[in-house]
Structure to design on (449 residues):
């Protein structure tokens, strides 16, 4: 597979052209990569309306992901989430009722801010069973029950999967229900870009989603900020017609050519190497899982390359598990009182996995306890809209003074997680208790003055 953006930039560097154009560094080396950092010069194409090398590269990506269209984001999944919601909103069916979206509660804050910017309401789907704010699996029955109990239908359903702990929602079964109701299914797949290329693919597009976003930088060898917006091949709602305009509305007018080259280079890697490399990585993760099992510790992740060590059933008094791994010079993706998440990719070396094995082998004996951490989530009472709250004057106050106040910006333990309380919702004693448990000391509230 060709790499048109990479090839153009390399040829431009070799040409020795004098740079009387942006960026201001003129290709002079400060960090070492400046010569590759260009702007929309002749032949470099334009991400907002590509008809040259960027268009060719995006078409390459579309073939790899088997989509009607795959568009590059240099603003990570956040840009793609905004564009995805925008497209669903402008293509909604005519109705006299107020438009809203039905969304799994573990939505990233980018989703919440997008609803405020675009100006529609949200009705939340809560999981039937979960033991962490970071996990929110929505079942087909839960979705169907939610839709049956609504006075009028949403203009879209929005799901986040994989969740932060590596739990997977069955997108295929949800897509079937959405088709029955003729509602588009949108998926935040930020953590699952690689899922199109494993032995048993579970990428949302292959499972029936109408649109989804991926963060290329999370699980593919791409620079931070690289992302995709994918539109399904059948494109039954015509989302592709205005997709580029939507991405432009929510993106910068100066997209990074370093990120575009990274996405372009990624195409070649995906075509030639990723499937074999992911198979090797998944085998190494299985070895780690077996080692954890030998210590009585479960890997609860359902992803083939993510490890979520579950310490929730153990007495950890006097021993800091996250710091144990840091002593071995290992930094993990996430840790709380119950779970430690190790995000592996095909680029982790044998040495990386050996170091992780050593750290697990040297864990002290952990004694099981019948007491689990006190986890619960609270269904919020919406006092005003998300938009009204986000665009109100807000103030930060101590958590203990927040009872009865209206949440300003959303509160989460880590994104993407179930927000303890969302913009526009009333803060209760129960919210405060849960916020304190997750280490929050202050909260943004609507300033009523």
């Amino acid at each position: 597979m060709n790499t048109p953006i990479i090839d153009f930039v390399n040829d431009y560097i070799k040409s020795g052209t004098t740079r009387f154009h942006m960026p201001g560094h003129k290709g002079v080396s400060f960090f070492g990569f400046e010569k590759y950092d260009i702007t929309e010069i002749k032949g470099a194409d334009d991400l907002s309306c590509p008809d040259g090398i960027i268009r060719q590269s995006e078409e390459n990506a579309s073939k790899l992901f088997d989509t009607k269209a795959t568009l590059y984001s240099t603003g990570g999944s956040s840009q793609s989430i905004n564009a995805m919601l925008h497209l669903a909103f402008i293509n909604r069916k005519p109705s006299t009722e107020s438009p809203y979206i039905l969304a799994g509660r573990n939505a990233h804050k980018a989703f919440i801010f997008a609803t405020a910017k675009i100006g529609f309401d949200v009705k939340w789907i809560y999981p039937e069973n979960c033991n962490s704010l970071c996990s929110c699996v929505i079942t087909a029955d839960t979705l169907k029950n939610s839709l049956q109990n609504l006075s009028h239908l949403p203009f879209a359903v929005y799901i986040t999967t994989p969740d932060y702990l590596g739990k997977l929602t069955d997108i295929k079964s949800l897509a079937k229900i959405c088709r029955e109701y003729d509602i588009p299914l949108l998926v935040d797949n930020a953590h699952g870009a690689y899922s199109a290329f494993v032995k048993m693919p579970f990428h949302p597009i292959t499972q029936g989603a109408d649109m989804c976003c991926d963060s290329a930088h999370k699980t593919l060898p791409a620079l931070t900020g690289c992302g995709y917006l994918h539109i399904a091949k059948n494109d039954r709602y015509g989302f592709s017609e205005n997709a580029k305009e939507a991405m432009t509305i929510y993106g910068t007018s100066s997209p990074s050519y370093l990120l575009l080259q990274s996405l372009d280079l990624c195409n070649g890697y995906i075509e030639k190497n990723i499937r074999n490399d992911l198979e090797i990585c998944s085998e190494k993760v299985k070895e780690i899982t077996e080692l954890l099992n030998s210590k009585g510790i479960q890997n609860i992740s359902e992803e083939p390359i993510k490890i979520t060590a579950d310490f929730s059933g153990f007495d950890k008094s006097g021993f800091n598990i996250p710091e144990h791994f840091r002593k071995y010079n290992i930094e993990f993706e996430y840790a709380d009182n119950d779970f430690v998440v190790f995000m592996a990719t095909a680029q982790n070396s044998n040495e990386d996995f050996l170091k992780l094995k050593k750290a697990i082998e040297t864990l002290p004996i952990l004694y099981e306890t019948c007491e689990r951490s006190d986890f619960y989530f609270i269904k919020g009472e919406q006092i005003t809209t998300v938009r009204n709250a986000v665009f109100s004057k807000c103030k930060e106050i101590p958590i203990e003074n927040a009872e009865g106040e209206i949440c300003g910006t959303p509160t989460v333990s880590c994104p993407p997680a179930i927000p303890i309380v969302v913009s526009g919702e009333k803060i209760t004693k129960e919210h405060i208790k849960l916020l304190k448990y997750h280490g929050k000391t202050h909260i943004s509230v609507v300033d009523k003055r």
